[in-house]
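Q: What residues go here?
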């Protein structure tokens, strides 16, 4: 029978780094949610943000004109959820307008804050436009009146989608309880665009819930490529002039670095008023000029009348900008 060597049995195992000859680099681990995988690419998310920011601007102008007061609409977030999770996030009572995208068989949901509906209708019907303290169900008459006002909101969203695809919405139903709205099975993914409405310093919400199948049909690779090519094309002259005007009036920080020096901490702590610290630069040497944290040019110190000034001697080129 073979016998085991007691010295071998008692030897401690060698570290893996000694066996391989080098330290193993830890692998990069990315989190992945198998229950709710991300199904929208970065290009699709960019496009969706673009669409709904345009929708927010158009809706803000419409509501401000309609109410004769400033109504601010902002896109807060675009979230991917399972439809069942979206239903759970809805309050009761809610104001859920079920719409159908024309030329498709898919539906979407406009969820409007009931408090905003009551405020809007009160303002439209000659009231003082006060927000109710408590949420209550929207009545049948209020549903119809609000439906007419939402027609313009649907047109604003259609216009925002216009550069990418034809997405026309038509109202087909209303519910005050999200559990009775089944546009897709509960496990199906949906995308929710959450917008914030501000009026009279009161905050409300408007959510648009799209089923994934509708967006999959709309956000095809061809449509995305067309949008990206348009967004990277030449800028319109009027828009370019506006950007140049706004940027030209922006204030930037101009900073001059006269020099630097290295001293011991003990010397730094013992500094007193009147002490002189020699710099690692002669008085005749050019100095560096910074805009923010980027080195912009080199210059010499001088005077312009009674003011201290600098004279630019060299503009740092783009490659040096990038290197800095």
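A:
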């Amino acid at each position: 029978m073979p016998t085991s060597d007691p010295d071998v049995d008692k030897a401690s195992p060698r570290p893996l780094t000694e066996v391989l000859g080098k330290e193993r680099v830890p692998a990069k681990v990315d989190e992945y949610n198998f229950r709710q995988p991300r199904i929208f690419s970065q290009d699709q998310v960019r496009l969706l943000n673009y669409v709904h920011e345009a929708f927010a601007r158009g809706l803000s102008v419409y509501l401000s004109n309609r109410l004769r007061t400033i109504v601010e609409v902002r896109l807060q977030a675009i979230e991917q959820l399972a439809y069942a999770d979206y239903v759970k996030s809805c309050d009761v009572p809610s104001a859920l307008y079920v719409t159908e995208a024309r030329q498709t068989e898919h539906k979407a949901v406009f969820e409007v804050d009931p408090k905003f509906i009551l405020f809007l209708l009160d303002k439209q019907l000659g009231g003082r436009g006060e927000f109710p303290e408590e949420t209550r169900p929207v009545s049948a008459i209020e549903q119809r009146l609000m439906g007419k006002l939402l027609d313009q909101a649907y047109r604003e969203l259609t216009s925002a989608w216009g550069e990418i695809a034809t997405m026309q919405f038509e109202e087909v139903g209303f519910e005050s309880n999200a559990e009775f709205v089944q546009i897709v099975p509960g496990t199906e993914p949906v995308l929710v665009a959450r917008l914030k409405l501000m009026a009279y310093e009161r905050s409300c919400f408007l959510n648009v819930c799209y089923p994934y199948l509708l967006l999959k049909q709309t956000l095809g690779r061809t449509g995305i490529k067309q949008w990206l090519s348009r967004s990277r094309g030449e800028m319109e002259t009027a828009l370019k002039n506006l950007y140049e005007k706004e940027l030209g009036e922006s204030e930037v920080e101009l900073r001059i670095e006269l020099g630097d020096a290295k001293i011991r901490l003990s010397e730094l702590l013992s500094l007193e008023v009147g002490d002189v610290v020699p710099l690692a630069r002669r008085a005749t040497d050019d100095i560096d000029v910074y805009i923010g944290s980027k080195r912009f040019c080199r210059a010499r110190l001088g005077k312009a009348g009674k003011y201290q000034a600098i004279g630019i001697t060299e503009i740092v080129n783009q490659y040096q900008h990038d290197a800095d």
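A: Context that may help when evaluating the design: The first strand starts at residue 71 and ends at 82. The first helix runs from residue 6 to 10.
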